[in-house]
Amino acid sequence: MTDTRPPYAGTRYPRLAEIPAFTEHIATGWSTAPVPATPVPGAPEAAAAHRDRLSERLPGQAIVVASGTARVRNDDNDYPFRADSDFTWLTGCQVEGAVLVMTPRPGGHDARLFMPPPFRPGDTGFFANAAHGELWVGASPGLPEWSDALQLPVAPAADLTAPPGALTTGSAGDDLTARHGLEPSPLLERHLAALRMIKDPWEIEQLRDAVDATVAGFAAVAAEIPRAVSHGLGERWLQGTFDRHARTFGNGTGYTTIVGSGPHAPTLHWVRCDGPVLPDEVLLLDMGVEARSLYTADVTRTLPASGTFSGPQRDVHDLVERAHRAGLAQIRPGVQYLDFHYAAMEVIATGLHDWGLLPVSVDEALSPHGQHHRRYLACGIGHHLGLDVHDCSAAEYEDYMGADLQPGVVMTVEPGLYFHANDLTVPPELRGIGVRLEDDVLVTPTGADVLSAALPIDAAGIETWTKAQQS
């Protein structure tokens, strides 16, 4: 039987490639000009130094690191692509489907980048490939442009040959995985996590920029609180305000923005942001701009929506502030990483005991077999920060929790208290109050630098700051 269906019938995309007249017509008549590759300034040089550090750590070991591919959101619609953090750290590049190969040689490694070339006019993929066809995604840099910009040899992805015995990390996509067996190596992930803990000057500059943009984003959100209340726009409006700011002044958000009003504030990851902004309740904002280099901030403040804390709200905030300051005081070189955690937890447990909320003594609560105070603070109160909001999480315990702080570490300190509205162990006036303070902190040779210090942490300062933004 002759197939009389049109070329697109029953297919996901039109089968235009099967129509000679169309393919001949669309292949010609286009002006072309090279499109420069534009990595973030300083990223290629920083990445070269990062590769040298990894080479010194793993001499003689072949290494393969992939950038990953976009994840499917639904049907044929993908989430926006975000390059793998290890790949970005080693290349300064954010191209989808790219793979870095580091081949050992005497005294180091030779690095080569493989990436899919864009489909230009004359290529079938120009109109048929929605991921790399320029008719779909716009004019793109070619491999020579990327090679010049990154100061790396760049070859087509189809030419990739994985060295035998290579350690690999990152998502190489189903096709590359099937052809080359590029399964992730936990060993390589741990080595990279340990290296990424110590930020170099360029990385610290990126984090400062991300934090500064985040502080400005907090001001933009605070200014919109009255409108969110009076017009019934709610938490969604404030979340959208920050997300627009992050996309304008950075790559986007470093994680899903948390906006929790009233009874939502105690929910640790309230990312639904679908409730009202209650005028007499506290508003917990956990937000971070991801810079275009992909380094992210992670800052939290708890604001009174009205501009003034109630008595119970201020009491909770004051206790969290004392814990926060105790944690910050432990951030300096030579101090064990977890010391800030223990210092803040002791303040929290003591305060809760003084309020009569602990069924045991402070010592019993703080013991490994107690932890009663953690009912109201079940999460951790800090982490490394960098390309990932919870940076270097693949590191060995002794490199992360068990290590002494060193200059160049960037971390968060974020104690809180979370009294859920349905928690009958707390008095009614405390139910539905959630408070968290979170700052981003750089360990310096002589102490610490709070990168987010432009935002106040004391209740009176926060009230004054909030009113100033709203006026």
Overview of the molecule:
The chain is an alpha+beta fold and 471 residues long. The chain has helices at residues 20-26, 43-57, 85-91, 125-128, 134-137, 143-150, 173-180, 186-196, 201-230, 234-249, 311-328, 339-354, 362-366, 459-470, and strands at residues 63-66, 72-74, 77-78, 99-105, 108-115, 154-156, 167-169, 252-253, 258-261, 282-287, 289-290, 299-304, 410-413, 416-419, 433-436, 439-443, 448-450. 44% of the residues are buried. Helix 9 packs across helix 14 and helix 11 runs antiparallel to helix 12. Helix content is 34%, strand content 15%. A 5-stranded mixed sheet has the order 6-5-4-1-7. Strands 9-10-12 form a 3-stranded antiparallel sheet. It has a 3-stranded antiparallel sheet with strand order 13-16-17. The protein has 14 helices and 17 strands. It folds into 2 domains: 19-195, Creatine Amidinohydrolase, Chain A, domain 1; 198-470, Creatinase/methionine aminopeptidase superfamily (Creatine Amidinohydrolase, Alpha-Beta Complex), CATH 3.90.230. The N and C termini lie far apart (75 Å). The mean pLDDT is 94. It is globular. The longest helix is centred in the middle third of the chain and has 30 residues, at 201-230.
